[in-house]
Amino acid sequence: MATFGTSNKYINYSVNSQELSYDINSNTSVVRVWIDVWRTNTGYTTYGTGTVYARINGGVYSAGISTGQKITSTPIRLGTWDVTVGHNADGSKAISVTGWISHSQFSSSEQGYTHTLTTIPRQANITESSNFTDVQNPTIKFSNPGGFNMSVWLEPNPNGPHLAVRDNIPNTGSYTWELTDEERNQLREACKGKTCTIRIGLYSNNKQWASYHDRTYTITNANPSFTSITATPVNPFGSLYLQGKSSIKLTINGAKGMYGSTITTYSIKGGDYSYSGESNTYTTDVLSKSGDITFTATITDSRGFTASKTVKVTVTAYTLPTLTFETYRCDSSGTKDIIKGTYIYVKPTFTYCVITGNAIKTKSIKINNTSKSTAFNSGQGYVFSGYALNTTHEVEVSITDNVGNTVTVIHDIDIGKVILNIPPHKNGVGWGRYCNKEGEFQIEYDLNIFGKILKNGEELPVFTKNGNYSVPPAPIEKNNIYFKYSENEQWTGEYNYDGKKIYIKTASFITSSSNVGAWASTGIILANMYRVLDIRGYSDDGAQFNTYPRYESSSYFLNLCSGVQKDILYMCAGYPSKKITLNILYTKTTD
Question: What is the pLDDT of residues 100-153, one digit of tens each?
Fold first, then answer.
């Protein structure tokens, strides 16, 4: 409906239309059109003669207007027309509806609108379908109100080729394909995954119209295959896979996909070994363990389907040869004599891994790099002559097994032991050993000190460990880092006998004027301090102090007054009114 004005501003008219019905068989609709007129104000009446016109889908229709048709504020109908309209071939239709009035008292121009009619079902349509697998026959249900001829098809991956086409199917409301093996394989090969979309299509009216449903197509029983997985030894011992020597080459043979798929991944897993990639072969690292290893080979195709097989490999246990030997100075009979023996006794003991084909292949005893024997037995002693007392001698024993592994052990024969030795050059002395270097006083005995250790008449500090004396760290004056004065804590680069790092820190202060006592600013903070090792320093007049354990000179002294309390070092002095600079060596509770 649409309302329009006329030449009289108080008179309007409307053009109206209604689709009364449609007929599927004739592909037509019946449309009713009518025109009403009325005044927009009240209390007035207009009458006269004339004609009302309607143009419907291009056809013009009219009706006469008489004086008895009085126009007031209540609408009156001037004309009504029922028209049969033919639809387009596809059942659609839109018509133009217009109207106008020619009256003795007023007139109007032609006005109207477009009326879109119901689309009459013409093409055949799929009404029901289901997902299906590669071994099933798909079924559809359909409507075909126009009774047109129909064709059906299957379309993998929509917008692809039409397969399994069937023309002129019966108009029975449903259809089931009977797929051939060739058609099934065509569908499988077109589907690149385990599933894909297949469009089920229905043509009607000589393939002018199409109706379709997209459904999921699933491939079954499409696993790839391979003939075997084989294992081949790399660097075997005989025919054995040998622990510590051999590797395993594994090969997947005869792999192929189904229905156009390709093999994308080869994987092999077993024991501590695994591989996944594009190659059908894999070689393990050298085998580190013995026993049975079951390898599983798996292939994966382009659709994601898999197939697997296994192979078992036995790895033979293997250990390296073992070798020890006893050796010492002796006399000609082999009796041990480390003081004056000029013979050397060697007693090798060795084993090898007892497996098929293995034995000791070669043996060697060398003294001072000179071969002495290549044929000797395990557990048997051998004596070799001509070895001076005043030099050391190197004894080397080695064995090699059939696997190819060699074990070599070297021992040194020491210089002969004597109570006192003064060498011919008389520039050195040996206690408990021959002196073999000029300018040295060499001691082979343990050193047990009951007195003091002095240097230039001054006692050196010593340290005890488990009740025994041990040599302290290198003297301070040998490491100039000790005299790089810094109030920041520094590691000297050396360790105390208990394994702790030795640190150094510099502190300066002014002593009091009295002979005894503590001064106000003498608290020196040593964070996490464990033990004071040494304190050395200088006064402003150049005097050197060695203050720890204690330094005294006539009436002047500088020492630990109250020791260490809560990481603070307190000093006392009888060296009045002097500026003192100290280097403090200490260890810490934590490094």
Answer: 999 999 999 999 999 999 998 888 999 999 999 999 999 999 999 888 899 999
Say if CB 211 and CB 123 are below 8 A apart: yes
Residue-level pLDDT at 562: 38
Q: Compute CA 331 distance to the chain's CA centroid, rounded to the nearest angstrom.
A: 67
Q: Which structure tokens are listed for 287?
A: 């085998």
Tell me the C-alpha distance between 235 and 399, whole Å. 21
Q: Which of 459, 327, 461, 471 is nearest to 393 (CA)?
A: 327
Query: Does residue 31 contact residue 95 with C-beta atoms inside 8 Å?
Result: yes
Region of 260 (left: φ > 0; alpha: ψ -120 to 50; beta: rest) is left
One-character DSSP codes across 146-184: T---EEEEEEESSSS--EEEEES--SSSEEE----HHHH
3-state secondary structure 337-365: CCCCCCEEEEEEEEECCCCCCCCEEEEEE
- The token duo for 175 is 């259809």
C-alpha to C-alpha distance for 268 and 23, rounded to whole angstroms: 71
- The pLDDT, as a whole number, for residue 543 is 55
Q: Where are the beta strands (DSSP E) in 416-567?
A: 420-421, 428-431, 440-443, 454-455, 458-459, 463-465, 468-470, 490-495, 501-510, 524-525, 529-539, 544-546, 551-553, 556-565
202 alpha-carbon distance from chain centroid: 51
SS3 content of the chain, % helix, strand, coil (to 5): 5, 55, 45
- Give dist(CA 175, CA 179) in Å, integer: 12
Q: Looking at the DSSP assignment, which residues form a beta bridge with residue 364? A: 398
Q: Decide if 331 contacts 343 (C-beta within 8 A).
A: yes
423 prior amide bond cis, ω within 30? no
Residue 267 backbone phi and psi in degrees, to 5: -135, 145
- Alpha helix (H) ranges present in 395-482? none
Using left for φ > 0, alpha for ψ between -120 and 50, and beta otherwise, residue 557 falls in beta
| Cα–Cα distance, 16 to 3 (Å, whole number) | 9
**Residue 411 and residue 329 in contact, taking contact as beta carbons nearer than 8 Å:** no
pLDDT at 578: 65
Query: Mean per-residue pLDDT for 410-437?
Result: 81
Mean pLDDT of 539-559: 45
Per DSSP, 418 falls in state: -
Residues contacting 258, CB < 8 A, separation 6+: 188, 222, 223, 224, 225, 301, 305
Q: What is the pTM of this model?
A: 0.55
254 φ, ψ (degrees, to nearest 5)? 65, 35
